Amino acid sequence: MTLILILLVGGIIGWLASILMRTDAQQGIFLNIVVGVIGALIAGVVITPLIGGAPITSGAFDIMSLFASFLGAVILLAIVNLFRRGSIR
């Protein structure tokens, strides 16, 4: 059940991050899920220890962990845009 929630929340977070970074037209639902889940992993390693809380990959779905996962997804898309286009956008 937790895996399904992680995929669902990861898809929504990846979709919101792609809208913010203006890459929504290039991605489908599968890439939104991938960006959201990898963003949550980045947040669990980098962002969550700085701001406190637990990552969504551990099953915590509070506001702090969702915000950290969103920031992780935005960071991931910024890195991808940097290598793909040469600018963050």
Describe this structure in words.
The chain has helices at residues 2-20, 29-51, 63-85. It has one domain (2-86). It is globular and about 35 Å long. It has 89 residues and is mainly α. The chain contains 3 helices and no strands.
Question: What is the straight-line distance between the termini?
Answer: 36 Å
H/E topology pattern: HHH
Structural class: mainly alpha
Compute the number of structural domains: 1
Q: Which percent range fits the helix content?
A: over 70%
Mean pLDDT equals 85
Main sheet overview: none
* Cα shape: globular
The helix count comes to 3
Low-pLDDT stretches are none
Proportion of residues in extended strands: under 5%
Based on CA atoms alone, the radius of gyration comes out at 12 Å
What's the count of strands?
A: 0
Oligomer: single chain
Secondary structure layout plus pairing:
Blueprint: H1 2-20, H2 29-51, H3 63-85
Helix pairs in contact: 1-2, 1-3, 2-3
Annotation keywords:
mainly alpha, 89 residues, single chain, 3 helices, globular, 73% helix
Quick recap:
The chain is mostly helical and 89 residues long. The chain has helices spanning 2-20, 29-51, 63-85.
